[in-house]
Amino acid sequence: MKIDCDVVVVGSGVAGLVCALELPEDYNIILITKKNLEDSNSYLAQGGISVRRGEKDRESFINDTLTAGHFKNNKKAVEILVDESEDAVQSLLKYGVEFNMKDDSLAYTREGGHSKFRIVYHNDITGRAVMEGLIKKVKTRRNIRILEECEMKDIVEMDNSSLGVIAKYDNKYTFINSKYTVLATGGTGGLYGNSTSFPHIKGDGIGVAITHGVKLKDISNIQIHPTSLYEEKIGRRFLISESVRGEGAKILNYHGNRFIDELKPRDVVSKAIFEEMKKDNSKHEWLNFRTIDKDINARFPNICKYLMDIGIDPKKENVPVVPAHHYTIGGIDVDMNARTSMNNLYAIGEVANTGVHGTNRLASNSLLECVVFGKRAAKDIKNNYTEEKKNLDLDNLAYSIDGNYEDIVKKRIEEDENSKVK
Predict the structure, then answer these.
(1) What are the CB-based long-range contacts (under 8 Å, 24+) for 92-99?
(2) What's the CA gap between 104 and 323, in Å, rounded?
């Protein structure tokens, strides 16, 4: 089976949806997703989206991002992220996304590593609110065809140019022949047993890049989130947003004593918790919600409900927390317009390495990166659009229908880790 289009977007998180929406409405776009539209890590995001609070906040926001990333960031990428952040939030508002308001203006919260309150949010389900707004908008676009339960198996290339993807859809292998391919497939969280990610998000985009020789960068760089909920059950960890600490919650050791400044960058807090767990010989430490000077049920309704449903009352008792894999910092190497080393192939969101995060991501910069670089990818495609299209004989091209990249990605991550140790 063969489908023709102008652009195929692989992935239905914030990056993929924004890119599809920002492309001209006379383009024929196909958006495919491995599961359902809602089954992306974007949907799970709780905290919010960082945004510059006017020109006076520019240097502070840039410095906070560089400091969190240990100054290993691409400064140009950071400047782009900060300078285009206000426009990014306005784009989301235009697409119908709702954020919390205060006195007819956007409300702001703070998270670890930020020197001021500059994070817009929707209660404690920002990702869900953003995704629901974008999904509703995408479904109104007649030029965007959505294929759910459609798994990319490979990309098709010729002479280092992307010509589309091979996907399995409705139990059939389908060649989606496109002029441009955008990978928005997410990170590698599903490869880790202790992770806040959906288990099906296992680095497919990175695996495809590896097999086609597309340039990668720092794919062993991951971020550990300090406060996932500790539960005995095996599976995805429930995240307790950093904004909980931003609003005043305190981290305590097993003996009930505070041992770390909760608003340090994530890697610092995670390391401190691991060290304290080792010292205590404990499986977790504690998070005290009772130091928050707000109604926690109103500010964090989703988190509180989840905790109450499993028998933990955060108004009366400490909550057990443990660090968990949360975000893939490294990925497919891209330029400032999300272009990869393969012609007509773009990568956006967690699958890409823009250089924004350095070695540690500043809280709430991930959804912002998705919007900023999703918009940039769409703009670059528009600016370089060509009517030319190659007619292909698939019998003469090499491609895979296996699509199992798990071992390939794990091996490359290990190799990248070893190269840094040396």
Answers:
(1) 92/49, 92/130, 92/133, 92/134, 92/371, 95/21, 95/133, 95/134, 95/137, 96/133, 96/136, 96/137, 97/122, 97/129, 97/130, 97/133, 97/134, 98/122, 98/129, 98/133, 99/126, 99/129
(2) 37
Q: What is the pLDDT of residues 345-372, one digit of tens each?
A: 999 999 999 999 999 999 999 999 999 9
Residue with structure tokens 């985009």? 205
The whole-number pLDDT of residue 136 equals 98
Q: What's the CA gap between 68 and 57, in Å, rounded?
A: 17
Q: 53 an active-site residue? A: no
What whole-number distance in Å separates Cα of residue 193 and Cα of residue 405? Answer: 17
Q: Please give the single-letter amino acid code of residue 15.
A: A
Are the CB atoms for 178 and 7 separated by under 8 Å? yes
Q: What distance in Å separates the CA atoms of residue 61 and residue 78, rounded to the nearest whole number? A: 9
- In one-letter notation, the amino acid at residue 211 is T
Residues 6+ apart with CB under 8 A from 166: 152, 153, 154, 155, 156, 173, 174, 175, 176, 399, 400, 401
CA–CA distance, 303 with 208 (Å, rounded to integer):
36
Q: Over the stretch 371-380, which tens digit does the pLDDT of each residue have?
A: 999 999 999 9
Per-residue pLDDT, 403: 76
Alpha-carbon distance of 69 to 355, in angstroms, equals 10
More confident residue, 265 or 349: 349
Catalytic residue of the set 110, 236, 245, 266: 266
What is the pTM (predicted TM-score) of this model? 0.94
Name the least confident of 4-8, 100-104, 387-391, 403-407: 387-391
Q: What phi and psi values does residue 110 have, to the nearest 5 degrees? A: -130, 150
Q: State pLDDT tens for residues 183-241.
A: 999 999 999 988 999 999 999 999 999 999 999 999 999 999 999 999 988 778 999 99
For the chain, the domains span: 2-221+329-407, 229-325
| pLDDT tens digits along 301-311 | 999 999 999 99
| Cα 363 from Cα 65, distance rounded (Å) | 9
Residue 398 phi/psi, 5° resolution? -95, 130
For the chain, what's the residue count? 422
Count the helix, strand and coil residues of the chain and give each as a percent rounded to the nearest 5. Answer: 35, 25, 45
Could you name the CATH architecture of 2-221+329-407? Answer: 3-Layer(bba) Sandwich (3.50)
Which residues in 350-370 are b (16+ Cβ under 10 Å) and which e?
bbbbbbbbbbbbbbbbbbbbb
In CATH, the number for domain 229-325 is: 3.90.700.10
